[in-house]
Amino acid sequence: AHPSARLLVQRRARGLLLAPLAATTLGLGVVGDVWWGDSQVEHVKGLQRAAIASFTHGDVLAQELEGREVIVLNSNSQAVGLYGEFVLAAYGQPVPASWRTLAMGEFAMFASRPRDNVLELAAIQGAWLRGPNELFFRREDRHVVTGDVFEYPSLRVEVLADEDGDPTKVRMTFPHSLEDPRYLFLSSTPKGLRKWAVPAVGKPGVVPLPRMPVVEEGESRIDGD
To answer: How far apart are CA 42 and CA 58, in angstroms?
Structure first.
């Protein structure tokens, strides 16, 4: 046989031998992609169940919500910390006048109340603007340092201490007493969103590490349907 013909036969033979291996690799890749996709879907579903359970497992639904200013001290979930009023509205629940969080980091906090309308928070083994939930809204290289002040109509925030440009202690000054009935302070706990007891003036307090309930499939509605 001509040398070029033999070479062509050899190449085709090698191709046939490699075909099962390629098919196996492709099959494993497809299976792996499907498994990864399914696992991500289940992860997102789990986060959704946990977020809803934060409302149903805690005592927040037992509070008077309509027209109030809800303040979540710390949350590790954007749905819970930032969009609570939309979650409530979606399930036909009373909606507060506002819903905001003061931190979204994986840390507990020491709290103090030097004046009637002032709350100071200090991160325990952590800092603001380091976690993904907070960096979603502000770049990591845009530091916030001691002395920086942010003024809003409903809140004044002053950075009292920082670590490498990340705040570790902040002072929150509200227009009214922290005990004004318009305010509802909440903490995010494994037992759901729970009312947080504002410390007396001059007294300390603690904000627990933010957590959401661990729930099984089916525990994902506020209205019980």
So the answer is: 24
Model confidence, pTM: 0.77
Q: Which amino acid is at 32?
A: G
pLDDT above 90 for 50:
no
Q: How far apart are CA 92 and CA 27, in angstroms?
A: 46
Is residue 149 a part of any domain in this protein? yes
Per DSSP, the residues of 60-97 read GGGS--TT-EEEES--S-HHHHT-HHHHHHHTT----S
Residues 8 and 13: their CA atoms lie apart, in Å, by 9
Is the Cβ–Cβ distance between 189 and 211 less than 8 Å? Answer: yes
Residue 156 placed within a domain: yes
Residues with Cβ within 8 Å of 165's Cβ and at least 6 positions away in sequence, in order, are 143, 144, 145
Distant-in-sequence, close-in-space partners of 78: CB < 8 Å, separation ≥ 6: 104, 133, 136
Domain total in the chain: 1
Rounded Cα–Cα distance for residues 169 and 222 (Å): 35
Distances (CA, A) of 113 to 88, 145, 198: 30, 22, 8
What tens digit of pLDDT does each residue of 119-169 get?
Answer: 999 999 999 999 888 887 788 888 999 999 999 999 999 999 999 999 999
Domain enclosing residue 186, as ranges: 57-207
What's the burial of 84, exposed, middle or buried (CB within 10 Å: 0-12/13-18/19+)?
A: buried
- Secondary structure percentages of the chain, helix, strand, coil, to 5: 30, 25, 45
